[in-house]
């Protein structure tokens, strides 16, 4: 992959787990530039801005953008996209269970 080529990952990243961070590192190891599109959707644990700040701290990420689900595909153009728009329901249940104790 050339220096000017981009890959993009799009998702809620809510939460950003160690497993997801590892997956992003694996994608980033393929070369080129890696952009993250943080989906700004209702019902997330963290704000889109907080999730974007967390993603920006990961080593392979070169660019972070926040977009609505219906808008982000237009923004990435011809970048190769790895999409993971789901949230970890198991993690959400864990947090809610801990809060109810």
Q: What is the element layout, followed by pairings?
A:
Blueprint: E1 6-11, H1 18-28, E2 33-39, H2 48-56, E3 61-67, H3 72-76, E4 80-84, H4 89-99
Parallel strand pairs: 1-2, 1-4, 2-3
Radius of gyration: 14 Å
Secondary structure tally: strands = 4
Number of domains: 1
Indicate the CATH architecture.
3-Layer(aba) Sandwich
CATH topology: Rossmann fold
Order of helices and strands: EHEHEHEH
Strand count, sense and barrel status of the largest sheet are: 4 strands, parallel
Q: Mean pLDDT score, rounded?
A: 80
Structural class: alpha/beta
CATH class: Alpha Beta
Q: State the low-pLDDT regions, or none.
A: none
Helix content: 25-40%
Strand line-up of the largest beta sheet: 3-2-1-4
- Strand percentage lies at 15-25%
The rounded distance between the terminal residues' Cα atoms is 50 Å
Total DSSP helices: 4
Q: Spell out the CATH superfamily.
A: HUPs
Which geometry do the CA atoms define? globular
Please describe what this structure looks like.
The protein is of the alpha/beta class. It has one domain (6-99): 3-Layer(aba) Sandwich (Rossmann fold). It is built from four helices and four strands, in the order E-H-E-H-E-H-E-H. It is globular, with a radius of gyration of 14 Å. 19% of the residues are buried.
Please provide a brief summary of the model.
The protein has helices spanning 18-28, 48-56, 72-76, 89-99, and strands at 6-11, 33-39, 61-67, 80-84. By secondary structure, the protein is an alpha/beta fold.
